[in-house]
Amino acid sequence: MEYLRNYDKSFRHLASIPFIYSVVFPIILLDIILEIYHHVCFSLWEIPLVERDKYIKVDRHKLEYLDILQKANCVYCGYANGFLRYAAAIAGRTEKYWCGIKHKEDEKFRVPEYQKEFVDYDDAEAFETKYRGE
Question: What Å distances lie between residue 43 and 37, 48, 56, 70, 84, CA to CA?
Answer without folding.
Answer: 10, 8, 22, 39, 21
